């Protein structure tokens, strides 16, 4: 994950270059964005990319090509992972039923 220096400072993260600290801070920040935007993943992603102020200003995903593309790409990956997880669960259920 990537945190901007000011965001890291706001979160109390002293070493953004430490991978574990950075990931933990990024997850904490994303959880806060999810809470701020009522668990709307698309808005939280947009806020992570463009800043929460931009999402509030535009009352949705800001019309920035970079942000629109970011949200689209991450959501596509998310849907793919969810689909794989469901397929894995179905395979496990089928395997267990056979035994």
Automatic annotation (TrEMBL):
Organism of this sequence: Acidihalobacter prosperus
Entry's family note: Belongs to the transglycosylase Slt family.
SUPFAM superfamilies recorded: Lysozyme-like
Ranges for domain Transglycosylase SLT: 1-62
Matching Gene3D superfamilies: 1.10.530.10
InterPro entries to which the protein is assigned, alphabetical: Lysozyme-like_dom_sf, Transglycosylase_SLT_dom_1
Protein name: Transglycosylase SLT domain-containing protein
Domain of life: Bacteria
């Amino acid at each position: 994950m990537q945190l901007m220096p000011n965001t890291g400072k706001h979160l109390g993260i002293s070493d953004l270059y430490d991978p574990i600290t950075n990931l933990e801070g990024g997850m904490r920040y994303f959880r806060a964005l999810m809470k701020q935007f009522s668990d709307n993943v698309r808005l939280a992603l947009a806020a992570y990319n463009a800043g929460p102020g931009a999402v509030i200003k535009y009352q949705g995903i800001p019309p920035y090509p970079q942000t629109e593309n970011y949200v689209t790409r991450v959501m596509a990956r998310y849907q793919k992972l969810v689909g794989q997880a469901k397929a894995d669960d179905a395979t496990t259920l089928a395997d267990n039923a056979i035994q």
